[in-house]
Design a protein that fits this description.
Blueprint: H1 2-16, H2 26-29, H3 55-58, H4 62-74, H5 76-97, E1 102-109, E2 132-143, H6 145-213, H7 219-254, H8 283-286, H9 288-309, E3 314-326, E4 331-345, H10 353-419, H11 425-459
Antiparallel strand pairs: 1-2, 2-3, 3-4
Helix pairs in contact: 4-6, 5-6, 6-7, 6-9, 6-11, 9-10, 10-11
């Protein structure tokens, strides 16, 4: 009879629990998002894009690649992210083992002897009592299979969240390392130009002092030139300090003491030919923050299922087997004793806790759906902004390059005039300064192009391994 009751209860459980056995489906759970206009003005119909590249394909400079690999291997945040993934992985294994029965082994024994203070015949000849038993118990205690299943699925989503968080740490480290590397290259190039400017103004100052001694220049003009020279010297010192500070920050990423960072010039960066944004849906599978938001939504979905599962019966199954030997119980020699127990517990009323838990979990899922939609929209806006920066930097590049060429022509022409005694040295210095300023703008434009490309790469969820 009991066996029939259990079978019928399990059958009813399998039928009524279908609704809480469903897997997460983005289209059914998440709020509708028009992905066709997700990128705004930067929309592209290309199925491949910058986000499809691995970071080694974007940053091809061998020195930078070695530096990034070193950062990923030594950075403390990256190590902790790895350990966090391991911890959540262990929690998932525990959730999976929740389906398995608990097994326990027990044993006990005792020794007893009877003494007769009156020394009556026959009492002293009674044998010693040495009863013992060895037993094993296997069972599922108050198990709700639907709750266990949804708890396991929720643990799987937590693991995916943690992996996405690790990916976020990695992409952040890769981008920061590349940004700092090329910023150091930018400062190196600017330092060279400022050193040239310093040398030119130093030479010009010496000439003006000689002319003043010869009575051909006044004190005001020389003082003005000297003030400009010292201002340039200050800029040189500032650039050198910025280089040292940035190298120290890079060493912090490397988890190393302060030291020199090897690097090449800005020219080592070559933007990939593929700069399209790619399909909008790619954001959902690449960007760590979007992935984290979606896994939070999926986890909330399984929390709702788990709350619903609490309304269904819990199953109790246990089996006990033992070997018992005891003279006083007239079980000698020993014998095996077995016992099996099965039961169902259907919750009826628990002071409104079950209903409250369900409503809370539904509200949390709705909040997670809002967060997911916001994450996707924010990602699309970031892509739009980064794409605009890339296009702007490319448009300015052509103009700035033409400006530099024009300044080079002006400088060469001024030098020829000076050599022919048709111009003074101030004109040469001015023309050279104008050229250097144009070259500095050119360097800044190259850096802006690199930064915008890296920003777009990250906005598209690039760097996923």
């Amino acid at each position: 009879m009991k066996k029939n009751i259990i079978i019928l209860s399990l059958a009813a459980l399998s039928l009524t629990g279908c609704g809480v056995m469903k897997n997460y489906d983005r289209e059914k759970v998440a709020q509708p998002i028009d992905t066709e206009i997700l990128y705004g003005d930067a929309q592209s119909g290309d199925s491949l894009g910058l986000g499809d590249l691995k970071w080694r394909e974007l940053f091809t400079d061998p020195t930078l690649q070695a530096l990034i690999e070193k950062v990923l291997a030594q950075n403390t945040d990256m190590k902790n992210a790895d350990l966090t993934v391991q911890q959540v992985g262990y929690a998932l294994k525990a959730a999976k083992w929740a389906f398995a029965p608990s097994i326990s082994l027990s044993g006990n024994g005792s020794v007893s002897k009877m003494w007769d203070p009156y020394e009556r015949p026959g009492y002293s000849n009674l044998p010693n009592s040495k009863p013992y038993s060895i037993g094993m118990t296997i069972g599922w205690q108050q198990v709700n299979l639907l709750q266990l299943r949804n708890a396991k699925k929720g643990a799987e989503m937590n693991l995916e969240q943690t992996r996405a968080a690790k990916q976020a740490v990695q992409t952040s480290l890769v981008s920061h390392t590349a940004e700092m590397y090329y910023t150091l290259s930018q400062l190196d190039a600017q330092l060279v130009l400022m050193e040239q400017t310093k040398a030119n103004w130093s030479e010009y100052l010496k000439m003006q002092k000689l002319l003043m001694e010869a009575g051909q220049a006044n004190t005001a003009a020389v003082a003005s030139i000297e003030a400009t020279y010292w201002s340039i010297c200050q800029s040189v010192v500032t650039i050198k300090d910025n280089i040292r500070i940035l190298e120290n920050q890079m060493c912090t990423l490397l988890n190393e003491p302060s030291g020199k960072i090897s690097r090449n010039s800005l020219s080592t960066f070559h933007a990939p030919a593929i700069v399209s944004t790619g399909a909008p849906i790619s954001l959902l599978s690449r960007r760590p923050d979007v992935r984290i938001a979606e896994m939070a939504l999926a986890s909330a979905f399984y929390d709702v299922n788990q709350a619903k599962s609490a309304f269904y019966p819990s199953l109790t199954l246990s089996a006990t087997g033992s070997f018992y030997n005891g003279q006083q119980a007239n079980i000698n020699p020993g014998a095996f004793i077995g016992q099996a127990i099965a039961g169902l517990a259907q919750p009826i009323f628990q002071n409104g806790k079950l209903i409250a838990t369900l409503k809370i979990s539904k509200a949390q899922m709705e909040m997670s759906a809002n967060d997911f939609k916001n994450a996707v929209i924010s990602a699309g806006n970031e892509v739009n902004t980064a794409m605009l920066k890339v296009r702007s930097a490319e448009e300015l590049r052509e103009m700035i390059d033409k400006q530099v060429k024009a300044q080079e022509v002006a400088y060469d022409a001024t030098k020829k005039l000076f050599d022919g005694s048709n111009a003074n040295y101030l004109n040469v210095i001015t023309a050279h300064n104008n050229l250097i300023q144009a070259q500095i703008i050119q360097i800044e434009n190259r850096m802006e192009s690199i930064s915008a490309t890296v920003e777009l790469y990250l906005a598209l969820g690039g760097g996923a391994e």
